[in-house]
Amino acid sequence: MLFSTPQFFAFFAVVLASFYAATPRWRRPILLAASYFFYMSWNPKFIVLLLTLTVLDYTAALLIARATRYRKAFLIASLAGNLGFLGFFKYYNFLAENLATLLRLPPHHFALSIILPLGISFHTFQSMSYVVDVYRREQEPVRNPLDYALFIAFFPQLVAGPIVRAREFFADLYAWVAPSNEEILRGGLLLLLGLVKKMALADQFSPLADAYFQNAPSHPGALAAWSGTFAFAMQIFFDFSGYTDMAIGMALLLGFHFPVNFRRPYLAYSITDFWRRWHMTLSRWLRDYVYITFGGNREGELKTYRNLMLTMLLGGLWHGASWNFVIWGGYHGALLSLERIGGKRRFLTQPNRFTYPLRAALTFGLVCIGWVFFRAATFADAVYVLGQMFSWGYAGASIVPLWLICFVGISLVLAIAEERGAWIDRASRGPAWAYAAAVVVLLFSVELLAVTDKPIPFVYFQF
Amino acid sequence: MRAARTLLLCLLGFLALDAAVFHTRFYRAVLKPDSTAGLVESILTAEITRPVHDRKQVIMVGDSRMGFYPRFTDPLLPELGYTFRTIGVAGSSPRCWYYLLREVDPTRRRYSAVLIPLENYDDAEISEDYANRIVDLNYLAGVLSWRDAWEFASSFRDPQLKLQALRGLFLKGLVYKRDFEDLLASPGRRWHEVKDLGPNEATWRFGFQETDASLKDVHIDAKTGAVAGPPEVLAAHGDALRARFFNTAPANRGLEAEYLHYWLTKICDYYQGSGTQVVFLRLPRGGFVRPDQPPLNSSSSVRVLSRRPGVKLVPEHFFDDLEHPELFHDEVHLNGPGNERFSIEVAREVSVLLGRG
Fold it and tell me: Residue A247: what are its φ and ψ, rounded to 5°?
């Protein structure tokens, strides 16, 4: 049940109606039942896995909070359980293939037929952060198992985030207040904006990116390579940020406040700035639970670079079991380190308005180069595409039609307007006609531009 | 309360904009002329704007098999007494014909007769369930209005298609999506197409020359199942000929009968008491006619409807003389000479049925 399908909207309407029609006592069970129904609509078998991890971490957190001894053992048991499941489902075949290659056996010698459970990378990270927070005494353990189960399974963020911290979620849950008029309007606008991003933009770019990356040699030339990569850069941004907008909007309509996950990342003026804007809840998670655990920047410059690289390599690997993702992570880690070497003031402070466009364009170009590793099926494919991007011979033809580039231009103007004037907030708080005008334009965009032939899954669902 | 009011305003604003763009002639005026919707639009516009000085007009509907061309019958006007025109569109179906007729003849006073072609008079089952032909939405998006929503959507049998039809009818932008993307891809080209091609469509159709190629050297052996003939003809039409001639006829499930009954009755009801006669004809079946024709069904839709006043049937075997390989260019479509003979024979016979004007 994809967020962008009529079935999901029917489901959400029923949930919303039941939630507000019910007495407060029944609201949490309704949300939990809806979340499990949503999860089971993909593959009912994996509910066992979700329940197992829920019970494991709920129990581990209680034991850690009560125990005076063996706290670390309970933490390790919980982490081992989460990472064990994650490792088996997500990385077993990757490791098996590499082992087989090392032993000069056929690549699939040790391979198993494993289906990746939906959203496992997200809910295990969320669950682990809770247990670690309890261990660090930054979070009180949750007593009610149903509340904890809802924290893990809450359907707006179950399959692709944002990765919500326990204290954020439980603050809303335990002091729930009905959303204000502004929040309802903002939630509705975000839901619709996300739908436009996904169906009218990401899904338009998706077949273009697929056409290029599935058969790059049939589109020779630098222009073709850059446009193919540009198509993917647009697809992944509009797809993931669209999903996130919908998740945040739905949560808001239910009275929950999710953290911001994207802050116009393609307006970043450096890679450091990019990572403050792209998938912010994952960056925060990696910073708090990986980078700082490694020592962060407290142990000298060299170790800081090492920690940065390790964090980004793990971040890359989190996205998928492939060396290309590791290279993508390493590439960003190297750029972050280089910027750090280049000087904090130069890369971490906002450039002036004359140099900003150039810096933003350069950053976008560097990000696009990284996307080649992210999207290409193999390392050899990525090298081929990069070779084409920097070839000086035949330029080839752009695979992105002009009208789509015009829509990107419109999106860019809206992004700059949001950056400077926060129009989404202002529309929600402003006069009704302004809000209605925005909604009408968005609805019209969905009607005319949304790809409805067949639902295209969200890119991040595969992670 | 404020949120509810604002959301209601959004909904009304959207419906108003959608209605202004898609439920008026605004977007229909810029449809790509050679798309399905654009073709229907130009055919309808040509017929609606054609000056008509009396009611001695006969209009025909039909699909690509309705090989009727007015240029063959216009010179015979003094003899026939009627002007014959067609709003037939390749790929259209009886459901489309009802709505197309309603669009060109809203007062039911424009024509002496409407002519409706059929494959047979027996409601014989066919392999496709026409009730589930969602492509009809593309033919009819321009002419359907909100008041048609329920009936049009519920005429599909598949619940998913009912929903799709309902959605497409309320939000016509969903149906015009490809057309709109094409418009965005090249607004200049579209401007020229609409300006140049659209108005010439009727002239082009009027003068359209069907191929003279034929199946005259093709032979079908009903006993052995062999199809012989020139290699280039067999390469192009051999499989279709074999399928048409030898494929087992679908078992009768009553789907076609139910579908035809519904839509043909709608057309007859529409014209009941209007002075416009509804005339059914059985199309020439092909250059090769399989021996196992559907059995006579005396309670079929058209036979029952023909008992009504104002409903007539062209004799069932009237066009049998056209069922020769040299008059067909493929398994079902008449070629140039076939179209000419068919057009003249239809016009003459209908004139006789109506009483010469």
Answer: -60, -45
Which segments of A44-189 are extended strands (E)? none
Residue A415 burial class via C-beta count within 10 angstroms: exposed 0-12, middle 13-18, buried 19 and up:
middle
Residues of A whose CB is below 8 A from B160: none
**Whole-structure pTM over 0.80, yes or no?**
yes
| Closest CB to B14 among A402, A403, A444 | A444
CB contact under 8 A, A452 and B5: no
- B277's enclosing H/E stretch is strand B277-282
Contact A369, A389 (CB under 8 A): yes
Which of B23, B172, B184, B186 is the best residue to mutate to test the A interface, defined by the most A CB atoms within 10 Å of its own CB? Answer: B184
The kind and range of the H/E element at B226 are strand B226-228
Instruction: Read off the pLDDT of residues A74-111 as tens digits, 9 standing for 90 and up.
Output: 999 999 999 999 989 888 888 888 888 888 888 888 88
Question: What is the identity of the amino acid at B104?
Answer: V
Are B44 and B104 a contacting pair, CB within 8 Å? yes
CA dihedral B68, B70, B74, B75 (to 10 degrees): -60
Backbone torsions φ then ψ of B86, nearest 5 degrees: -130, 140
State the count of interchain CB pairs (< 8 A) between A and B.
56
> Maximum CA pair distance of chain A?
70
Per-residue model confidence as pLDDT tens digits over A126-185: 999 999 999 999 999 999 999 999 999 999 999 887 999 999 999 999 999 999 989 999
Question: Which residues sit opposite B58 in a β-bridge?
Answer: B84, B113
Query: How do B113-118 and B57-60 pair as beta strands?
Result: parallel
- Residue whose tokens read 């069970």: A29
The residue to which tokens 């999903």 are assigned: A243
CA-CA-CA-CA dihedral for A131, A135, A138, A139, to nearest 10:
40
- State both tokens at A241: 């940020």
Peptide bond into A29 cis (omega under 30): no
For A168-196, b/e burial (b = at least 16 CB within 10 A) is bbbebbeeeeebeeebbbbbbbbbbbbbb
- The answer to whether A109 is a known catalytic residue is no
B57-60: strand order across its sheet: B83-86, B57-60, B113-118, B277-282, B311-313
* Prediction ipTM score: 0.77
Judging contacts by C-beta atoms under 8 Å, the chain A residues touching residue B180 are 448-449
The values of phi and psi at residue B274, to 5°, are -90, -15
| Cα dihedral: A330, A333, A335, A338 (round 10) | -120
